[in-house]
From TrEMBL:
Chief location category: cytoplasm
A Pfam family it matches: SIR2
Name of the protein: NAD-dependent protein deacylase
Stated family: Belongs to the sirtuin family. Class III subfamily.
Cytoplasm in keyword set: yes
Lineage: Bacteria, Pseudomonadati, Acidobacteriota, Holophagae, Holophagales
Catalytic activity from the UniProt record: N(6)-acetyl-L-lysyl-[protein] + NAD(+) + H2O = 2''-O-acetyl-ADP-D-ribose + nicotinamide + L-lysyl-[protein]; N(6)-succinyl-L-lysyl-[protein] + NAD(+) + H2O = 2''-O-succinyl-ADP-D-ribose + nicotinamide + L-lysyl-[protein]
Function: NAD-dependent lysine deacetylase and desuccinylase that specifically removes acetyl and succinyl groups on target proteins. Modulates the activities of several proteins which are inactive in their acylated form.
SUPFAM superfamilies per record: DHS-like NAD/FAD-binding domain
Cofactor binding mode and count: Binds 1 zinc ion per subunit.
Gene3D superfamilies per record: SIR2/SIRT2 'Small Domain, TPP-binding domain
Length: 234
């Protein structure tokens, strides 16, 4: 069914949309990094216990951004945003910058961003393209130590008010490349307005697939451009 061009769209993406760019997803791999469970590296407790280890983990991931490019799925979502007349919001759980580099602007990184750092002293957030370590200091207050601007397990995702506000008002909610394991992102589909159309695009049905009206399985670089063409009437 065609969607009116002024309809409100919210799209949620996860690691699956970046998989074909060459970034490993969390749960398709074995969930391990150098024999550490990822959940054990990505916590405030881990950072407190062993900041050097946690910095090394995120430095590696930040460096890997230089070796990857946005793929056809990222580019299709940027094209949809440019062409769509109605309200549009892209919410990503990904900490990579591939949506940004594809040209998406109405974009919220609910789990933070690899390319930013946050001061543990004054809270200032700064672009941080290179490595970070315990000697890194805040450019604003000059004294505070820095941490990755990443939402760790046990921390509250960013921009939740804006996200729920958009989801509750949307006419179309689409989840792409996310396994449905991590809340609150996995529960956003339940917050969509009763009349909203809900669609999941994923390599395999996610853990919350039954909450969507429609689930399409396949690769993001196939499914997303095709879905965008449908919406734009191409
Ligand atoms: N195209 C579409 N979907 C894919 C592709 C692909 N090429 N490759 C993998 N997938 C799907 C997988 O089937 C899986 O359901 O993407 C999903 C990736 O799931 P996860 O690895 O669990 O990633 P995500 O859902 O984004 O994880 C959520 O968990 O570790 C935390 O904070 C981290 O943001 C992350 C959150």
């Amino acid at each position: 069914m065609a969607l009116p061009r002024d309809a409100a769209i919210v799209i949620l993406t996860g690691a699956g949309i970046s998989a074909e760019s060459g970034l490993r997803t969390f749960r398709d791999a074995d969930g391990l990094w150098e024999n550490h469970r990822v959940e054990e590296v990505a916590t405030p407790e881990a950072f407190h216990r062993d900041p050097a280890l946690v910095h090394r983990f995120y430095n590696e991931r930040r460096q890997s951004l230089a070796t990857v490019q946005p793929n056809a799925a990222h580019l299709a979502l940027a094209r949809l945003e440019r062409a769509w007349a109605g309200p549009f919001l892209l919410v990503t759980q990904n900490v990579d910058d591939l949506h940004d580099r594809a040209g998406s602007r109405q974009l919220l990184h609910m789990h933070g961003e690899l390319v930013r750092g946050r001061c543990l002293g004054c809270g200032a957030i700064h672009p941080w393209p290179g490595d970070m370590d315990q000697a890194s200091r805040c450019p604003t207050c000059q004294t505070g130590r820095m941490r990755p601007h990443i939402v760790w397990f046990g921390e509250l995702p960013l921009d939740l008010d804006r996200i729920y506000d958009a989801v509750e008002r949307c006419d179309l909610f689409v989840a792409i490349g996310t396994s449905g394991h991590v809340y609150p992102a996995a529960g956003l589909v339940q917050a969509a307005a009763p009349g909203a159309r809900t669609v999941e695009l994923n390599l395999q049905p996610s853990r919350v697939a039954s909450a969507f009206q429609e689930a399409r399985t396949g690769r993001a670089t196939d499914l997303v451009p095709a879905f965008v063409e449908e919406l734009l009437g191409g």
